[in-house]
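Forum: Protein Structure Q&A
Topic: Joint prediction for protein chains with partners

I've read a bunch of threads here and the consensus seems to be that you should model interacting components together rather than docking separate models afterwards. I'd like to see that in practice. Below is the full input, 517 residues plus whatever partners are listed. Could one of the regulars post the assembled result?
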Amino acid sequence: MSSTNEGTPQTSTHTPAGLIGFAWALVGIPLVYGLVQTVRAASALFTG
Amino acid sequence: MAVPSFLARERTVARPGFNRWLIPPAALAVHLAIGQVYATSVYKAALVAHFDTSLTAIGIIFSLAIVVLGVSAAIFGTWVDRNGPRAAMFTAACFWSAGFLVGSLGIATSQLWLVYLGYGVIGGIGLGIGYISPVSTLIKWFPDRPGLATGMAIMGFGGGALIASPLSKQLLSWYDPGYDGTAGTTASGGSVAGLFLTLGLIYLVFMMFGAFIVRVPADDWKPAGWDSSMVKHRELVTTASVSAGNAIKTPQFWLLWVVLFCNVTAGIGILEQASPMIQDFFRTGQSSLVAPAAATGFVGLLSLFNMGGRFVWSSTSDYLGRKGIYMIYLGVGLVLYVLLATLGSTATWLFVLLAALIISFYGGGFATAPAYLRDLFGTYQVGAIHGRLLTAWAAAGVAGPLIVNRVLDTQGTPGELVAGNYRPALFIMVGLLAIGFVANLLIKPVASKWHEPKGVDAHTSTPERSAAR
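Posted by a regular:
Agreed with the consensus. Here's the joint model:
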């Protein structure tokens, strides 16, 4: 989502999409790993 | 307390065009790391054997960390708001990592007091500062969706345990080939020391990444196409500012404190006992219909609902309003608790469904609290106010297990309990939820006498100045 900053003399910046993707991957990959492992453990409730 | 210039708040103000979607992963980097505190059960038995002590003595490590979390969040909340998220995240990373390293030294040298000091006290300070550090920043970046914003960060705290638990088992099995993570095998003390060392270093890098990508919005920034006057249409949502010093003088703060305390105490009642509870509910004689492996699966399922509830319910609160969503957490939660106590033992699927929903409300209550504070007191010192509110968590962390354990102690011996033995504890939780429901109902907009003059901001004014009014 874009954003605005009205009335300031600051130079504008651009956040590279690659950086955003990298940051989300860095937190997302461990989270998916944890979710998969937990779903596997939880499945024992229905199979164990 | 001054901070080095590279951590200063002024250095983190985003320039126009900065993409705010870089902020949630910064917050998640911190919360996923500190969420490890809920994965301590992985090495509990190993520490009991290593120190040749009781489960209670080892349990103190976790309890100490949670109590210090609440106290440090309350004490350092104002400092966090004044110095900004980078300084706070950097400090949290140093404390959290140092806590692991000192704890590792304590395990390696067989000195339990060093583990108390390291993980419990030093790590606990990292927990407290880390927990509140990204919250107010997210609220400022997402004024249009504060529930979604806080839900994203605080979901990470629930997710941290999901990552740390399997990761710790994997690392322990590498460091101690005799340990395979299954019931009956216990990791050596040396391998737990190695685990602490490894986690300390991993979390340091992970949290520092968050600290260095985080930014605060400029004072006049707003999302494209969003008008701040749009937030005024709900009765409880203010555009005024209330300082942390003044917030704790208002009935609204203490009513919300009671709400959080009751919701957390009720949730902990189930979480603490999850594994034995499901087995006891379906016990016939000496055996249970629910096997230990299935009970472990139940704990995993609750973790998923705890995490999911943080994101889903907090995001939903942006549409239903904070007061409305807490009426669901507490009112529907109360009904679910009654059903659990009376019908929970009739079918496993019903028990699991009821418990999962209750735990999702528990998680939701945590994640929605900062957005509720923002509605009532504004964004001015919301981090500091949130820090003070977290003392309710610390108190509930003591009260919840105490209520359940005391009641169960009077009912019989562990391993022989049945569903009926849990009813007194469950009905106490029903009573607590009723108190919380009434407290939430009584919350009204904050009186204008507590509002700050227009134009103040958190990092240039002090709570002392506003409190002296």
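Strands of chain B lie at 221-223, 283-284, 287-288.
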